[in-house]
Amino acid sequence: MPTTDLLFPADPAQRAVARRLYALAAPQPIISPHGHVDPAILAEDRPFPDPARLLIVPDHYLTRMLLSQGVPPAELGVPTVDGSPTEPDGRTIWRRFAAHWHLFRGTPSRLWLEQTFTDVFGVRTPLSPATADAVYDELAARLAEPEFRPRALFERFGIEVLATTESPLDDLGQHAKLAADGWGGPGGRVITTFRPDNVADMEFDGWAGNVARLGEITGEDTGTYAGYLAALRRRREAFIAAGATCTDHGHPTARTLALGADEAARLYDKGLRGLADAADAETFRAHMLLEFARMSLDDGLVMQLHPGAVRNHNRWLYARHGRDVGGDLPQATEYLHALTPLLDAYGNDPRLRVVLYTLDEYTFSRELAPLAGGYAALYLGAPWWFLDSPEVLRRFRESVTESAGFYNTAGFVDDTRAFCSIPVRHDVARRVDAAYLARLVTEHRLGEDEAAETIVDLAYRLPKKVFKIGENLL
């Protein structure tokens, strides 16, 4: 990445220290332990499509902003649930997006995209309605070059490990191809993550059918609760064989609950019969977090908990275009009491590792930092989704460091579907950390030698350790 003063302090003394610290972090390999890049991109290593389909169509940060100004996603090429027509022409999509470029002033989306243009593609023409075609043509020319195919970019980005995210119903075929090519498997460069939401959340569309499919895949009788647990354990084994070191749980809340086996079985049966209500679904999700923690004690997978998202809040958008297209919103989330059953059971067991995330930044100092600073099993995940912006990354360090320190946090995760944005997002996080550490140094709260060690830990060593990157779990 270019050595500019982007995101560095205005104060000259702090800025000078930030430059030196950033120079240590910038060349570190990228550990991307949580994200949603399609593994097929790397398994098949085909040239990327046109610039619009690479950078705009799949990026709900971009399409939701234009929707907020009256531009429907179909006009930006976003696929529809029923297969009805959407804009097919990449250049038309690009021009439409460029005409609304001013909407992104001051947003992290603009920062990421501009840095992607310059740092990834070497395109320095500022985007505007007048330059839309010129920028499009420059990007398209780059995408036609072999150096801009996915695996070549992976190498140039300096990615050491990239974790994707799959459900227990995924056949992991793309990961098998990656492993056959020497890119995947335990200790590989591209690994998977076990995300069981579609079989653990009774409110997930088609939950009962998903559970039946889980039984077919594993040969277990998921008509019973005991068989269901056995099936989950089998799939976890398959994911570990494909390189997984983590699970991921995207629950609406952080609630945990310890049910007896008989009570859990009755609730499970109620769900299979279609009789469970919203309260039952929340109870089952809460109980399953404890079950997944027990499984993690056995197989070593790190748990990641991403609560607080109200899924598909924009019902029109969901009905028209489906999941994960910008219709989800954050909500206030309580952790202290919600996590007590889990922490009572396993919070002091260092064999368990739980990485907590939030969409409610007001919990940083009030709940999350004190919790992570007091339980061996807990680590704080980086701000994500609506919060993975320079200002919130800075506030995160300011809010949590005094209670939890640096070493009860888990390093940066990009949580992105946009493959080409990965180096940019990690660079932003490293710059923010350099700026924060520089302030501690110039305030005589930390020696620069310690700050230098810390920033390399945050950028590289800490995420490897917390997420067990490079470890064989079974």
TrEMBL record:
InterPro entries (alphabetical): Metal_Hydrolase, Uronate_isomerase
NCBIfam families recorded: PRK02925.1
Family listed: Belongs to the metallo-dependent hydrolases superfamily. Uronate isomerase family.
Enzyme class: isomerase
Superkingdom, natural source: Bacteria
Pathway(s) per entry: Carbohydrate metabolism; pentose and glucuronate interconversion
Matches recorded under Gene3D superfamilies: Metal-dependent hydrolases (3.20.20.140), uronate isomerase, domain 2, chain A (1.10.2020.10)
Organism lineage: Bacteria, Bacillati, Actinomycetota, Actinomycetes, Micromonosporales
SUPFAM superfamilies: Metallo-dependent hydrolases (SSF51556)
Keyword Isomerase: yes
Protein's UniProt name: Uronate isomerase
Catalytic reactions on record: D-glucuronate = D-fructuronate
EC number: 5.3.1.12
Keywords from the UniProt entry: Isomerase
A Pfam family recorded for this sequence: UxaC
Molecular function terms, GO-annotated: glucuronate isomerase activity
One Gene Ontology term from the biological process aspect of the record: D-glucuronate catabolic process
